[in-house]
């Protein structure tokens, strides 16, 4: 299980549910790229600012989204 909300162990995505909504392989690639981009930005944010709490991380994330602070 997860030890910290700042370091979750994974994401579960229901591929059967996605395909029933008409998504194809190309859509899955876009989803993976979007998730990868979000996770890499989160890691960069953690490494650069080293927030100690989820609240600190959330505030940094808000600033990042508004001002592109990385």
Notes on the protein architecture:
- With 70 residues, the chain is mainly alpha-helical.
- It contains three helices and no strands.
- The protein has helices at 15-20, 25-49, 54-67.
- The chain is elongated, with a radius of gyration of 15 Å.
- The two termini are 30 Å apart.
- 0% of the residues are buried.
Task: Tag the structure with descriptive keywords.
70 residues; mainly alpha; elongated
Give the helices and strands as they follow along the chain: HHH
Give the total of beta strands. Answer: 0
What is the overall shape? elongated
Low-confidence stretches: none
Contiguous helical run count: 3
**Regarding quaternary structure, how should these chains be classified?**
single chain
How far from one another are the termini? 30 Å
Based on CA atoms alone, the radius of gyration comes out at: 15 Å
Query: Largest beta sheet, briefly?
Result: none
How is this fold's topology laid out?
Blueprint: H1 15-20, H2 25-49, H3 54-67
Concise account of the structure shown:
With 70 residues, the chain is mainly α. The protein has helices spanning 15-20, 25-49, 54-67.
């Amino acid at each position: 299980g997860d030890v910290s909300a700042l370091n979750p162990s994974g994401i579960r995505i229901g591929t059967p549910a996605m395909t029933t909504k008409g998504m194809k392989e190309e859509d899955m690639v876009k989803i993976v790229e979007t998730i990868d981009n979000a996770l890499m930005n989160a890691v960069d944010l953690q490494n650069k600012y080293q927030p100690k709490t989820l609240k600190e991380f959330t505030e940094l994330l808000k600033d990042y989204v508004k001002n592109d602070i990385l």
